[in-house]
Write a structure and sequence with these properties.
By secondary structure, this protein is α/β, with parallel strands linked by helices. Helix content is 55%, strand content 11%. Strands 3-2-1-4-5-6-7-8 form an eight-stranded mixed sheet, sandwiched between helices.
């Protein structure tokens, strides 16, 4: 293993786990896989290889690193076999508290050499996930967005007894993988990214199911509108730049009443009722179902090109 590389175990081989593994393999890091569900584990190595190779094709990884990573990719026959040599154990199992608690307990019993054990949870708290562990100081959340190997943001959420030096180590590992770690200083359901996504998606769902706009046009409104501006600057900076020398003070002076009018009219429901859920599924499937396999690689190439453009601009 080369200097600077980290020996990783990915536990859980759903889409997120496979994304983590593809990212690490493409960086040349040794990766061991395990999943208690044989069906999920089946075909995992093949898909991880495909996704890692795609990173090279999109110029998000280097071929020599990929070759090294593929040689080191290993499928464990047991949790012990996957974790016993790992420095970093990445849990990427189902989003269920009891399942994750059992997994963390099991990991603790077999991963004595691991410096960090992270959960990919999008909404659960590490203090709850690791509640039955003796070594809670090495447990934290490292939440990626999907697909993990392409979207660089990772939310890092330490527990109340976290080793702060270790938090910095994990951030360093993430940066070495080309990620942008952001630390969530107060554990809340959904962290930051998913709360923002949930708020935006609720409005997007409502506009579609109420017949205001078609599914495909709604996705264009977001991806070619706010999402494009936010990709370059984020919401606060976007609005701070919107009125030139007046900054956000001027923006709020001129447009706060408009925003408040819209906020008053936004939906506030907290449950997607069965009828709306059925309508939403039907509308999305009608718009996209026959195109998904063709759309997915196009989406990935667009993400890679957006990232490349942002990186070029950042280097100027």
């Amino acid at each position: 293993m080369a200097s600077g590389q980290v020996r990783v175990a990915v536990i859980g081989t759903g889409d997120v786990g496979r994304g983590w593994a593809a990212m690490c393999v493409a960086a040349g890091w040794p990766v061991a896989l395990f999943d208690s569900d044989a069906r999920a584990l089946g075909g995992a190595a093949e898909e991880i290889t495909t996704r890692a190779k795609a990173l090279v094709d999109m110029e998000r990884a280097r071929q020599p690193d990929l070759d090294t990573g593929l040689q080191e990719l290993f499928v464990g026959r047991s949790l012990l076999e996957a974790c016993r040599a790992a420095q970093w154990v990445i849990e990427a199992g189902p989003e269920d508290l009891r399942t994750k608690q059992r997994m963390f307990e099991a990991i603790e019993s077999v991963a004595g050499k691991a410096r960090a054990v992270t959960s990919s949870t999008s909404g659960l708290k590490i203090v709850d996930i690791a509640a039955r562990c003796a070594r809670q100081d090495r447990c934290l959340v490292a939440h990626p967005l999907n697909p993990p190997e392409l979207i660089p943001l990772v939310e890092v959420v330490p527990g109340s007894v976290a080793d702060h030096a270790l938090v910095e180590v994990v951030k360093g590992w993430l940066r070495a993988l080309g990620r942008f770690p952001v630390e969530i200083k107060k554990a809340i359901p959904g962290n930051a990214a998913n709360r923002i996504a949930a708020a935006v998606w609720r409005e997007a769902i409502d506009l579609v199911v109420e017949g205001v706009i078609d599914v495909e046009d709604l996705d264009r409104v977001v991806s070619l509108g706010p999402a494009l501006g936010w990709a370059a600057a984020g919401p606060h900076l976007t609005y701070h730049l919107a009125t030139r020398d007046q900054g956000v003070r001027g923006f709020l002076q001129h447009l706060l009443k408009t925003f408040e009018m819209v906020w008053e009219d936004l939906p506030t429901w907290t449950k997607l009722e069965p009828a709306k859920r059925r309508r939403l599924i039907g509308l999305i499937e009608k718009a996209y179902d026959e195109k998904v396999e063709a759309i997915r690689p196009v989406r990935d190439r667009r993400l890679a090109e957006i990232l490349r453009g942002l990186e070029r601009a950042r280097g100027q």
